[in-house]
Automatic annotation (TrEMBL), chains A, B:
Family statement: Belongs to the Casparian strip membrane proteins (CASP) family.
One of the record's GO cellular component terms: plasma membrane
Name recorded for this polypeptide: CASP-like protein
Transmembrane segments: 24-46, 72-95, 107-134, 161-183
Length: 185, 185
């Protein structure tokens, strides 16, 4: 890790905002690591959400798991890919600590983060729509609230959404931070 | 409209990339207008998707409209707000034609576009998840494919998603364009 003590006001001519930028860049890398953890947690927790019911009634469904819903499968796949992307983006973000004037690679990172934001948001909100339906059902479409029966599945699957939304907030913050840094250069 | 003939190579010292930038900025404004049309079309077409069935069977549901699904209601509201945002963002984008060195307001525009991208993607993909379910149903949850009965509703509601996805692609392109322009300054 780069020492924070180097970034004082002594080298103001060559790096006008180096001190401020370096702190922000290190914060950015910490946030990327947090986003890796969030998205992996989302993917893993969703895959652990299967539930089997031992009912003595005439209900014909007895087990439910995330793989039954293509939207939740999409959620798991996208969270896995996004966590890999965050891991891959850390070296690129580290370049900016060493070379604080690398405008082009900053722009590339903003664009890649933006695409990731779009993809992750699509997965998270599609899964949210399905879990909302599982909780509330829909009377017009005759879709029952399956969470009345599959409480365990619903709780785990709903909780796994949190990791994705944390990563979305982190991404929005990272993009804003990089954009402001780019505008100041 | 600003004349394109002013932006030749004659004033290269004061505006190094003015000609190139001005063309891109005008393209950006045209794309914003296209995005207004797309999102309004999405919102209006979704609200026109209600369908009543005259069935002589024992099926207990006879009418369905977008208002029965909170996700589709969210979709209409967000598309309306986003179209208003695009209209509001055009004056801000026009500033950059007059003052091509306005870095701060470019950064603000990128951040606002990014937040809009997140919100619009969430609405579009949640609505897509619901329409996917309406088309395909889900056997594990005992949710029937209502599109077998409500063909008209499903076709209209699914078609209205297109406008949102067009606006999402436009937003991604606008953010990339602004970021590259900012990196070149």
């Amino acid at each position: 890790m780069v020492s924070q003590t180097e970034t004082g006001g002594t080298s103001k001519i060559s790096f006008p905002t180096a001190g401020n930028n370096r702190g922000m860049l290190i914060l950015g890398i910490i946030l990327r690591i947090a986003a890796i953890v969030s998205t992996i947690a989302s993917a893993v927790y969703m895959t652990m959400s299967d539930e089997q019911l031992q009912l003595f009634t005439q209900v014909s469904i007895f087990s439910v798991e995330y793989e039954d819903f293509s939207t939740l499968r999409y959620f798991v796949v996208i969270n896995s890919i996004v966590s890999a992307y965050f891991a891959f983006s850390i070296p690129l973000a580290m370049i900016h600590i060493a070379r604080s004037t690398a405008k082009q690679s900053r722009a590339v990172l903003i664009i890649m983060d933006m695409v990731t934001l779009g993809v992750l948001t699509s997965a998270a909100s599609a899964a949210t729509a399905i879990m909302f339906l599982a909780h509330n059902g829909n009377s017009s479409a005759n879709w029952n609230a399956i969470c009345n029966q599959y409480t365990g599945f619903c709780n785990k699957a709903s909780a796994s959404l949190i990791g994705s939304f944390v990563a979305i907030v982190i991404l929005m913050f990272l993009i804003s931070m990089s954009t402001v840094a780019l505008a100041r250069m």
